[in-house]
Structures are given as C-alpha cells and as structure tokens.
C-alpha cells in the first residue's frame, strides 16, 4: 500500500459522499415530533423578530404605560381603547407585547452566550489538545474545576456581584458553559490526532494551526453543533431562571423569566395569566430546542461515529 | 484506601483554596461594597468610615491575606445584615437545605430508577414511550417553572398541600427537621417533588440507556445460556452493571440539586441556605455570599469523594489510587 | 453402519428477522444431526448464520429474531416447541455453551465464584453453598486452572484471557452436559493458548462422552479435530459430511473455494485461489442458489434453490453441479 500513497488522499479528512442539503432536511423532518417542533420553533423565531411590528404596544416605552392598567385579565380593554388580549402585568404592560419583546431577549441572550462559549471553548480545547504537556494539564484542570461547579451557581454569583444587565447576563452564561465545549473539542481532537490522516499531515510538515483548523476542526463540528444546540436550550432555561430571580435581564427590558416572576405574587390571588402565558411560551421554546437538538444528534450521529 | 483519602483531602484543600482566591478577586475587586451598602446620599466621610470598618482601605494584597487567613480559622467575616459570623448564619440554615436536597434525591431515585429499568426492559411498549416523553419534558423545563406549576396545581387550585414554609418541625440533635412530622412532610413534598422531577428524568434516561446497553452484553447471554432464572439475571447481572454509572450521576446531581434548591427555596419560602443566599444577594450581604460559596465548594468536593468511594465499591475494576488520574 | 442414534437433530430450521410485517429470512432449512460424543464442526464466513444457529438451538434468540419453522430435537424432545422454563432446565445443564470472547462473557462485577455457584444452584437446588463452592473448585482444576481456590475469589478482569476462557469452559462442563456448543471459543486468544485450550477441551469432551459443536470460520483448525463438518453459506447448510471427505473431496464449489483459499491447504507450488466477490448481506440474498453470482460452475438451473442431497455415501451437498473428484494432494 505504501507505494500507492497519494498525498491528496491521505491529507484530506475522510469526506462522506455529500448529499444535497434538502435530502438531509427531509431526513431530519421524517420524525413527526421533530417536524412539529421545527414548525413551532420557526413560528416562535418569526414572532420574536417581528415583535416591533406586530406587538400592540411598545413595552419599553414607559410613557405608554399606566399603572392603573396593571393586572387586568385577558381580553380587557385599556384606558386608551385597545384590547389586552392576554391581559396586563404588574407594571400595566400589555402582556402579549411584553412577551413578544421578552421572547427576543430570551432567545438572543442565550444564543450569544453559546456562541461566545463555543468560540472560547473550542480555542481552549484545541490549544490544550495540540500543545499537550503542562499547558494542557493546566487548562484541563481549570475545565474540571469549572465542570464540578453547577452552572446555575456560577452564573448566579457572577450576576450577584456585577448586577443585572443583558450584556452581563450574556457573559455570565458564557462563563458558565464554555468548559463543556473545551472538554468536548479536546477529547475529540485527541482521538483525531491519533488517526492516520493527521499523522500523514504532520509528516508532510503542514503547520500546526493548519492541521488544527483545517483537518481536526471539521471532524468535530458535528458533535459541536449538537452540543451547542442542546446547550442553547439549557442556556435559555438558565437565563429564565436568573431573570426570574431578578438577576438577569433589567427591569426595563424584561425577558420571559422576569415576566413569570412579576406574575408570581398574583398567582395566589387567582390572576394566573401573568405567569402562565410567558411560562407556556418559555416551555415551548426550551422544549422545541431540546427536541430539535436531540433529533440533530440522531441524524448526525452515524456520520461522525463511522 | 488511606493514601487515596490523603490524596483526596489534599486535592480538596487545593480546590477550596483556589475557589477562595477566585471568589476573593471576583467579589472584592468588582465594585465597592461600601458604595453599595450605603445610600447614594451618604457623605464621603461616612463611606470612608465604612470602608475602614470593613477593612476595604487596606492594600489589596493585605485584604487578600486577611481573607485567606480568616478562612483558615473558619472565619468568613460577619454578616452585614445579621451582625453575626457569616458561617454560623449559613450553618444554621444548612440543615433545611440538606433535608430538601436529600428528600428530592430519594424521590428522584425511587421514581427514576424503576421507571428507567422498565423502559429499558420494554423499550417498544406505548407505556415506555409515554414515560420517555414525560422525562423529555422533565429535563427540558426550568426548575422554577416546574415549581410554579406544581404549586399552582396542588396548593392553589386543589388546596391539597401548603404553598410554602417548613411546617411543624421536630428538633433532633438541636436541629429542627420537617420530615419527622406529618405537617412537615406535607410542606416538604411539593418543593422536593419540583426539585426531583429534573433529576428523576435524568436518572430515568441514564438507567434506560444503561439497561438497553447491558442487555446486549455477552455476559447476559452467557447467564441465560447457563440456565439462570430471568429474575436473578435482572437483579444480579443487569442491575449491578446499570447501577454503577447511575450512582455517579446521582452523586453529581446532588450537587446540582443543592444549587437549584436556591430557586426552589425562593418559590416555596423554604428557609434554607439557598433562600438565604438570594436574600443576601438582594441585601448586598457579601460575607454571606462568600461563605455560601466556600461551603458549597466544600460540599461538592465531599460529594465527589464519596461518589468515587461508592463507585469503587460497586465496580472492582476501579482502583482508588488511579481514580483521579482519569479526568 | 451401527452408529448410535443422534442426540440432537436440527431439521428444516428457518429463522427470520421480523420488522413490522416483513420477515427477512436469516437461516433457511438448516438441518444436521449430532451423535453422542461426536465433534461437529460448523464452518462459514461471518454472517453465514453459524452463530445464529447456536443461539437458535439454545433458545437464546432475541426478538425481533425468531424461529419460524423447523425443529430442534434433543433426546427426542423438540426444544423449539418447549416453553421457556422447560428450555431453561436444559440450558447449561444438558446443553451448555461457550462464547467467543471470554472478556465479554463473564460479568465484570461478579466474582468467579458467584458466577460458578449460581450456575450449579440453578440446576441443583439442593446443593449447599459449601458443596457448590467445592464443586466449582474441582471444575476449575479439571480444566487446568492453577490455584483454583484463589481464582474463585477473583474478578474476571484479574485473570488472563486464557484463564477466563478456561473458567467459561469449566462453567459449561459443571453439569456434565450431553452437548456443548462452542462458538469460536479460541478466536479471541493468543495462538499458543488457542492450541492448549483446543486440546484440553476436545480431550475432556472425548473422555466424558460429551458431543461438541465447534463453530469456526477457520477450516484448517476444524479439520484437525472434527469428526464431521457442516459448511454454511448465507444462512444455509450447503455441504456436510465426515471431516476427511469434506476436506479431501469437497463437492460444493463454495466448500472447494473455501479450502483452496486457505494457504496451508492449497496445493504446493500453486497460488491460493480466493473466491471472487463477497458473501451476500442479510436480506439481499439472491434467489436460487445464493452462491450463484460468485460461482464459475453456475448454470441457468441454479436459479432454483438446489436441495441438500446425498452425493456420496455420507456426504451431502446443495448443488446441481457438484464436483466429483478429490482435491489433488500435494505430491
């Protein structure tokens, strides 16, 4: 076999025959639960993006709020003549508008966090795997230390010290989640390193960073996407928890978690809607992301396992 | 065994010291507690006096050494709100949290393990699919939302159980416990259940996956080929192998449970350390926050050590000396 | 021809994989007989159905794989028709099995003693713990495990591969079964250990009068000790007969190809002759003779499945164009 060595064939990572993208998509949607989740999630995303145009009220415009309107049941009419489809919250905000705006925050903040965590984690993981030795040990000790600490507690403490805010929440969540990606990439990169195509690339004196990013990274992308999707779900959940505790989103720009918290004191009085509607929306978001993430894993698994 | 414990204790001390340093820099450098503690219109002299009282006027390294020195003596500062040693305030609240956490872990194991086993043994039945769907909800839903739903359903609408507090307690060893009285148990049930759902779902999924995996193993076929009765195969051959990873999971999720009890305690007004933490965060009572963190880290390290010991007891292939080099 | 009656007769065994309403046949019309004390070698490539045949005899098939028709008659009773409890009384007691990989077939979390004693007690309820332990120790000594008493207290991972397989064999022999089915029991071992274990096991079986079904993909290994040989291809027995005849004068083109592709058996001075192509996958077996696409003697007649028929005094083959000459023995 050695005589036949063809550098191009050896240095390229194994590339499964490409299928058209729509076929992958059809395959993905073959599972009815995933198809429903995909549809619902698409609607949710569109609602979040279109919020400024479709919301009956701008919940950030304090001038349009009237405390006299607080805690109205669904379907009541406002002092200015509009109808509050889902009632109002403790600040007299139209709940539907607040939810549509809050939805965007509940999706975007965790998404940004996962992106940051991904970039940091992948970099740390690749550096650790490639450098080896003491740096590797040090970085991985840090990762272990971090993973031994529940993300809720970490993010909570960071926000307790820094105070609430969208940017701060994003960073706190990213801090709580980067280690997962670092561990994943480092593990995958280490096993890829042993494989022949990487050994071959090293023999050809291809520079280290090129091997890392051009050869190893593409092979760990599938698991990264899957874990990233599932972490996004966990992050939405965690952001909601932090905002529920009043530590995440600021009072002026409430996310779904804070809307739920606002309604909590009303629940005992039977005015359930202030918490329940944002809660149902939050539940749908997290569930959709998790179902899609699980389906993604099912679909991608055979390819990165083979 | 002894060398394992010695090594573990040294590691634990290192972890706690590292955490202490991180906490110090995080908590004491970002922001100025004196600024936060006193109202905006406090005079410069008042703030300065406060800074001196809290030791904040000292150079940073000296503050650090004071902090670490205090830590070694078990002195984590005095609570600004309660005016008592922070550690003492937390230790007083800790039993309530531990009671809640253990109750939820027990509940999660009692529910998750048998159901996971059932789903693993009968993967194709409609009942298993239903159980799996519910567990998918269980791992997805935020704990606080589960708590609200449970409270709304059982306490507000059905009025079956109380909405919050610990109820009647019985004092044993100088500590009040809820689980020893009927009323206390009624108060314990909802918060424990809302904490347990997430864990039970995790345990269920792991048990199911483990059972399906173990059933495929040759040693199960060999046991059948030996003519061993199905009951013994299940309880001895399968269960023991399924249990090993589940024990680790339960141990690790105990840490998560203690962390999440912060949220649950706030919803159900359970007077534990978690609620104290949240109240202290709102009140800028930093010594309490710091003491809580140090205590939490210590508990997590203890749990991990304990989990390793149990794992080694179940699986003879694990030798304690090498247990820590793997990860 | 005064041979004793067979102790195990497998006749027209059909096993299928059920998926929804579709049934994919995996074993077709498998038939063979085993006489007391005889060593029967079953040979075939991976996927030919040889391991599945073992599982079917033992009643160890797991749904969705199941027996569709046919009989497994042991001492006159059809195992395929018995209920689970009755079969369990026979498994490990009168018919025992040894698996391929000793690292996988012993439970890693249980001591050797536990795994042997449970096997004794399963078929001998009255046996006391002490007596069972004593029997286990004796059984280990019989199969050549040194320091047996100490080994009883060990966990599987503390033993070498060869020792572990000896333990499996000792477990199989605990109740002096009439039949032992050994599914490639030496494949996972080092070559030197392989020979030792093979030797000890066949000798013990001959001494105790235990019939042995030895499943292997290694024809040259089987030819050194088997009394009779069955060749399987794509879920079917395509040739069977006494070892000497099947090796010396294989009738089916596949058997012949199998023998000629073994370097040691190929005639001296000639290259080995690999069989062209690959065996068919489950569910994609061609109609008629499954070997037809790879066979140079195939004719249009082969589009119909040839029955397994007698071609010489004790030899049968499923082929319309069987060879009738002996293989040239190297001069």
What descriptors fit this protein?
heterotrimer; A: 306 residues; mainly alpha; MetI-like fold; two-stranded antiparallel ribbon; disordered N terminus; C: alpha/beta; 4-stranded antiparallel beta sheet; 11 helices; 12 strands; 31% helix; globular
Q: What is the beta-strand fraction of chain A?
A: under 5%
Give the N-to-C terminal Cα separation of chain A.
Answer: 22 Å
Please provide the count of β strands of chain A.
2
Tell me the name of the CATH homologous superfamily of the largest domain in chain B: MetI-like
How many individual domains of chain B? 2
- The span between the termini of chain B is 19 Å
**Annotation, overall tally of beta strands of chain B:** 2
Give a written overview of the molecule:
The complex is a heterotrimer of chains A (306), B (327) and C (331). With 306 residues, chain A is mostly helical. Chain A has helices at residues 7-11, 21-29, 32-54, 95-131, 133-147, 151-162, 166-193, 196-203, 208-244, 256-267, 273-305, and strands at 76-77, 83-84. In chain A, β1 and β2 (83-84) form a beta hairpin. In chain A, α3 packs across α11, α4 packs antiparallel against α9 and α4 (95-131) packs parallel to α11 (273-305). The two termini of chain A are 22 Å apart. The model of chain A is unreliable at 1-16 and 302-306 (pLDDT under 50). Chain B is mostly helical and 327 residues long. Chain B has twelve helices and two strands. Chain B has a two-stranded antiparallel ribbon with strand order 1-2. Chain B is globular. Chain B starts with a helix and ends in a 13-residue tail after the last helix. Mean pLDDT of chain B is 80; it is low at 322-327. Chain C has 331 residues and is an alpha/beta fold. Chain C contains eleven helices and twelve strands. Chain C has helices at residues 50-58, 84-90, 102-105, 112-123, 129-142, 148-152, 161-173, 191-208, 219-223, 243-248, 253-260; strands at residues 8-19, 22-34, 39-43, 65-74, 77-78, 95-98, 179-183, 211-216, 228-233, 236-242, 309-310, 316-317. Chain C has an eight-stranded mixed sheet with strand order 6-7-8-3-9-10-12-11, with helices on both faces. A four-stranded antiparallel sheet of chain C has the order 2-1-4-5, with helices on one face. In chain C, α4 (112-123) packs across α5 (129-142) and α5 packs across α7 (161-173). Chain C is globular, with a radius of gyration of 21 Å. The chains are: A mainly alpha (306), B mainly alpha (327), C alpha/beta (331). Chains A and B meet through α6, α9, α10 and α11 of A and α1, α6, α7, α10 and α11 of B. Chain B: Belongs to the binding-protein-dependent transport system permease family. Chain B: InterPro entries: BPD_transp_1_N, MetI-like, MetI-like_sf.
């Amino acid at each position: 076999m050695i005589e036949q060595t063809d550098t191009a064939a050896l240095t390229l990572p194994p590339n499964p025959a490409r299928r058209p993208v729509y076929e992958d998509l059809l395959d993905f949607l073959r599972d009815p639960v995933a198809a429903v989740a995909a549809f619902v999630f698409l609607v949710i995303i569109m609602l979040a993006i279109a919020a400024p145009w479709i919301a009956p009220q701008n919940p950030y415009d304090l001038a349009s709020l009237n405390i006299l309107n607080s805690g109205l049941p669904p379907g009541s009419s406002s002092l200015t003549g509009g109808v509050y489809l889902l009632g109002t919250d403790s600040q007299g905000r139209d709940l539907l508008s607040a939810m549509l705006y809050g939805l965007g925050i509940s999706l975007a903040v965790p998404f940004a966090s996962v992106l940051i965590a991904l970039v940091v984690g992948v970099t740390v993981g690749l550096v650790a795997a490639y450098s080896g030795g003491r740096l590797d040990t040090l970085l991985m000790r840090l990762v272990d230390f971090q993973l031994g600490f529940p993300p809720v507690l970490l993010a909570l403490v960071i926000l307790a010290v820094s105070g609430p805010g969208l940017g701060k929440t994003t960073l706190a969540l990213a801090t709580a989640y980067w280690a997962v990606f670092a561990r994943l990439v480092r593990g995958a990169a280490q096993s890829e390193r042993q494989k022949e195509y990487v050994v071959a690339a090293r023999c050809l004196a291809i520079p280290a960073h090129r091997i890392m990013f051009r050869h190893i990274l593409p092979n760990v992308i599938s698991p990264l996407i899957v874990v990233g999707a599932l972490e996004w779900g966990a992050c939405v959940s965690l952001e909601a928890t932090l905002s529920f505790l009043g530590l995440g989103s600021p009072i002026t720009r409430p996310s779904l978690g804070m809307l739920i918290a606002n309604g909590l004191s009303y629940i005992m009085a039977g005015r359930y809607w202030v918490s329940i509607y944002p809660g149902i929306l939050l539940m749908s978001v997290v569930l959709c992301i998790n179902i899609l993430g699980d389906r993604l894993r099912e679909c991608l698994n055979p390819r990165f396992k083979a | 065994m002894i060398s394992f414990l010695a090594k573990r204790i040294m590691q634990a001390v290192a972890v706690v010291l590292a955490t202490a340093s991180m906490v110090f820099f995080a908590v004491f450098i970002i922001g100025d507690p004196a600024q936060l503690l006193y109202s905006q219109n406090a005079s410069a002299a008042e703030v300065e006096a406060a800074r001196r009282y809290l030791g904040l006027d000292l150079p940073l390294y000296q503050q650090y050494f004071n902090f670490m020195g205090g830590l070694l003596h078990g002195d984590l500062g005095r609570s600004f709100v309660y005016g008592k040693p922070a550690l003492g305030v937390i230790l007083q609240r800790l039993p309530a949290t531990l009671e809640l956490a253990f109750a939820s872990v027990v509940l999660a194991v009692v529910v998750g393990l048998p159901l996971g086993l059932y789903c693993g043994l009968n993967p194709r039945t409609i009942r298993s699919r239903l159980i799996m769907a519910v567990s998918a909800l269980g791992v997805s839903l935020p704990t606080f939302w589960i708590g609200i739903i449970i409270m709304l359903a059982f306490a507000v609408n059905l009025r079956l159980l109380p909405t919050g507090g610990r109820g009647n307690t019985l004092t044993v060893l100088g500590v009040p416990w809820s689980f020893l009285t009927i009323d206390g148990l009624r108060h314990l049930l909802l918060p424990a259940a809302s904490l347990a759902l997430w864990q039970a779902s995790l345990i269920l999924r792991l048990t199911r996956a483990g059972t399906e995996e173990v059933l495929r193993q040759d040693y199960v076929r060999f046991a059948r080929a030996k003519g061993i009765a199905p009951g013994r195969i299940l309880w001895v051959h399968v269960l023991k192998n399924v249990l090993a990873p589940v024990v680790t999971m339960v141990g690790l999720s105990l840490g998560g449970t203690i962390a999440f009890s912060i949220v649950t305690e706030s919803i159900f007004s359970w007077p534990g350390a978690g609620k104290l933490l949240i109240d202290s965060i709102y009140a800028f009572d930093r010594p309490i926050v710091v003491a809580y963190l140090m205590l939490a880290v210590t508990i997590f390290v203890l749990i991990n050590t304990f989990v390793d010991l149990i794992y080694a007891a179940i699986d003879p292939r694990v030798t304690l000396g090498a247990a820590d080099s793997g990860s | 021809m005064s041979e004793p009656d067979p102790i195990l007769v497998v006749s027209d065994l059909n096993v299928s994989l059920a998926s929804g309403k579709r049934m994919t046949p995996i074993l077709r019309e498998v038939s063979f007989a085993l006489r007391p004390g005889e060593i029967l070698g079953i040979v075939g490539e991976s996927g030919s159905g040889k391991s599945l045949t073992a599982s079917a005899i033992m009643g160890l098939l797991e749904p969705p794989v199941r027996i569709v028709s046919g009989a497994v008659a042991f001492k006159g009773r059809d195992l395929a028709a018995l209920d689970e409890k009755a079969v369990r009384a026979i498994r490990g007691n009168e018919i025992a099995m040894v698996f391929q990989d000793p690292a996988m077939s012993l439970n890693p979390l249980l001591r050797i003693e536990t795994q042997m004693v449970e096997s004794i007690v399963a078929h001998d309820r009255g046996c006391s713990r002490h007596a069972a332990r004593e029997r286990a120790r004796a059984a280990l000594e019989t199969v050549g495990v040194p320091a047996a008493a100490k080994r009883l207290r060990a966990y599987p991972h503390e033993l070498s591969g060869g020792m572990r397989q000896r333990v499996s064999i000792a477990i199989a022999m605990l109740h002096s079964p009439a039949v032992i089915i050994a599914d490639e029991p030496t494949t996972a071992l080092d070559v030197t250990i392989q020979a030792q274990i093979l030797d000890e096991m066949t000798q013990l079986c001959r001494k105790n009068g235990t019939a042995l079904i030895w499943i292997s993909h290694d024809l040259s290994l089987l030819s050194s000790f088997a009394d009779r040989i069955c060749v399987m291809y794509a879920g079917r027995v395509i040739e069977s007969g006494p070892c000497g005849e099947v090796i010396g004068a294989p009738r089916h083109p596949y058997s012949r190809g199998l023998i000629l592709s073994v370097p040691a058996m190929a005639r001296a001075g000639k290259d080995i002759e690999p069989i062209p192509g690959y065996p068919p996958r489950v569910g994609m077996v061609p109609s008629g003779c499954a070997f037809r696409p790879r066979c140079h003697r195939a004719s249009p007649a082969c589009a119909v499945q040839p029955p397994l028929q007698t071609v010489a005094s004790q030899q049968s083959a499923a082929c319309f164009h069987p060879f009738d000459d002996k293989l040239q023995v190297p001069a």
